[in-house]
Amino acid sequence: MKLILLLIYFAVMVGIGLYCRKHATDVNGFVLGGRSVGPWLTAFAYGTSYFSAVVFVGYAGQFGWKYGLAATWAGIGNAVIGSLLAWVILGRRTRLMTQQLNSATMPQFFGERFGSRPLKIGASVIIFIFLIPYTASLYNGLSRLFGMAFNIDYSYCIVLMAVLTAIYVIAGGYMATAINDFIQGIIMLIGIVAVIAAVLNSKGGFMAALDGLARVSDETVASTPGVFASFFGPDPLNLMFVVILTSLGTWGLPQMVQKFYAIKNEEAIRKGTIISTLFALVVAGGCYFLGGFGRLFSDKIDIAANGFDSVIPAMLSGLSPMLIALVVILVLSASMSTLSSLVMASSSTLTIDFFKELIWKKMDEKDQVFSIRLLVVVFIAISSVLALIQYKSSVTFIAQLMGVSWGALAGSFLAPFLYSLYSKKVTKLSCWVCFLFSSVLMVANIFWKSYFPAILQSPINCGAVAMLAGLVIVPVVSLVTPKPDKELVENAFACYEKETLVPQKTSLGNKK
Questions:
Q1: How far apart are CA 506 and CA 102, in angstroms?
Q2: How many CB atoms are closer than 10 A to CB 166?
Q3: I need a surface site. Which of 53, 404, 424, 426 has the fewest CB within 10 A?
């Protein structure tokens, strides 16, 4: 039954990729789906790119174990800050200005917005360096689940997942990934609800599980009775940093922001905001809520020997074969959707913002699409090799770099991108300072962690600080550096001043 479900799932994914070939004939179609993607596909593409096996297996297990039920705040933050506010604050303005500047990637946006070719290349280098290890991390959460469900070598899982993702991304481009994301999102919604119900039922239901969690004590964490079932848990400060990194971080991640480039119209933004928020609330809230009960299974878990990645698989090991099959497809869906989004962002950025700028300046549309497709294969191959190296050896450097990638990417891009959409005073030097500050800070956190203050030795805390610091750096540096070119700025902001007719249900107008 498990194999039959997997085969059906794989066949559907590949079939959609082949069906969407007609939408992927030029760069605009391949990378952005012709900027005509509706609310459901965009919202699910955003949500499924947001949540992968890293969240379901890694973060849910780790933070659920550390903070108990209070880890659910991370899921709530993901829904409110990472989805609702991201759509409200970034959605419309991103769609308008990127179309005005004819930009298909984040580096291209910076290059056109500030009239700076070096800024464009610099942003593409940061994306290339930090997206590759993040891409490799997507495979990690699958290893224990596939071992538990099929008792097969994890290497086969890596190769299979890589090949299937490559087929439907290369064939159908963004439209294929969006449709597949929609299907994968439905699987994730059904799967997380079913798994939570089954796990809680195995402990006598919600109230019995909550009572059991309230009786758990760990003197090494906190001496307060019932702290793992409390509102804020044993460590509210570090929990806050988790919420900031995993929620605010989406505002500066290229693969997330790029979803707004492809939105069809105003109605799609309104509907997409609601759909995306509800999706995040169920999936992210559900994952962290489930992880919060991890300590009830402490008799099956050895954190010292197997790490936090063993928490969720141990919780699921007693489920029925059918539910385990659903979980495997759930986590596979989450990983493949995020993988496709990341390789699209990486390959399009390297082609449009690096190769076309420095190496092959006369690259036409056909050549660009071919290059993007070729780089999809390259990026997936590199991430697969990195995942295999980490799995087969004791290399830990890759895993460290994965944890740093979110902080480096979001820290570099969040503030420059956000302020550039709203303020005419942002300077390109302020963008450079933010890029360098966050990238250097996060790399330093890998190699010289011991020199950091205790609270910042965690890559999560350090990444959250990098994001918040950028929100201060950009306006401050913009105040003391030469003003941007007025004509360039006015051209970018002209898109907001164009008049458009709307029905009276949207606006009552000014007539008395």
A1: 28
A2: 21
A3: 424
Instruction: Return the exposure string of 451-475: e unless at least 16 CB atoms fall within 10 Å of the residue's CB, then b.
Output: eeeeebebbbbbbbbbbbbbeebbe
pTM of the model: 0.85
Per-residue model confidence (pLDDT) at position 150:
65
In 3D space, the residue among 249, 259, 256 whose CA is nearest the CA of residue 415 turns out to be 249
Q: Which residue has the tokens 């933010």?
A: 434
Residue whose entry in the numeric block shows the structure tokens 């709307």: 502
Read out DSSP for 182-242? HHHHHHHHHHHHHHHHHHHHHTTSHHHHHHHHHT--BTTTB-STTGGGSSS-S-HHHHHHH
| Burial zone of 449 (CB within 10 Å; 0-12 exposed, 13-18 middle, 19+ buried) | middle
b/e per residue 24-38 (b: at least 16 CB within 10 A): beebbbbbbbbbebb
Name the token pair of 437. Answer: 């500050």
Cα(202)–Cα(375) distance, integer angstroms: 46
Closest of 28, 51, 20, 30 to residue 336, by C-alpha: 51
- Give the contacts of 115 (CB within 8 A, at least 6 positions apart): 428, 485, 488
In the chain, what are the domain boundaries? Answer: 2-482
- Token pair of 512, please? 């008395």
d(CA 492, CA 97): 6
For domain 2-482, the CATH architecture is: Up-down Bundle (1.20)
Q: Which of 286, 334, 275, 336 is nearest to 44 (CA)?
A: 275
Q: What is the mean pLDDT of each run of 10 residues along the chain (512 residues)?
A: 77 80 67 67 81 77 88 93 93 88 86 89 86 73 63 75 81 77 84 88 89 81 77 88 90 86 80 91 91 85 74 80 78 76 78 72 76 84 79 57 80 94 92 94 88 87 92 95 88 81 61 48
First-last CA distance in the chain: 67
The strand pairing partners of 222, in sequence order, are 218
Amino acid occupying residue 494: A
